[in-house]
Amino acid sequence: MKARRSVRMGGKPRLLGGKLAAVRLPIRTRRLILRAPVTSDVESVYRALRDETMGRFVSGRPRPYTRVHATDFVSGARRKMRRGEMLNLIGVDARTGELSVAVGLYNLNWKDRHGEIGYWVPRRLWGQGLATEAVIAVCAEVFRHTNVHRIEATVEVDNEASARVLTKAGFVKEGTRRHAHLHGTSWTDADLYALLNEGSLAPSGTVLGNRSGRNRVLKVKKVVAGVRTSPP
Q: 114: closest CA among 177, 190, 196, 174?
């Protein structure tokens, strides 16, 4: 039987199944609270993803994007998280509760200990570093609480903003996948990035990778059962 863990925050249940149950949610960073999606997120998800400019870079996004799609996104994310199939989080502004980012870990391969990360930010919030903040936090918690060793990401070659998110988070470009995505009748190449759990746990947080002899250390605050805590 898969392990399940439920913690209540603000009256909303939070469930994670399988090996992902060890990940402590919600995750709190300097500006964000990263949590499981809830029904009240549907309208915010719809408003963000109906934007064709932003949605062009969201893999698998239906066109046109409707409220039904947003509802399916929320319910499907919660169902898959209960099964331990993926981690699909909504990041809200820690002060206002406004949807600020979405980040997911999927295509998990527990045998080879790797997964793939994806993210998006509503267009009005581009350029503020929110995706980088969310990606670093999620990778830190996954590396800390599971045996995942490698996290990958693919970015279309013309999506320079998304590539910057990954490099700032410590990911290393490993190559280019030719004709990785099909848009209508046109193929697009995509660059492959990866982050390895090469570091170790430090008193101040989780070490992410080891590039040029320098470790990237992230301090991540956690909220468990409604009580905010910090690493010792």
A: 196
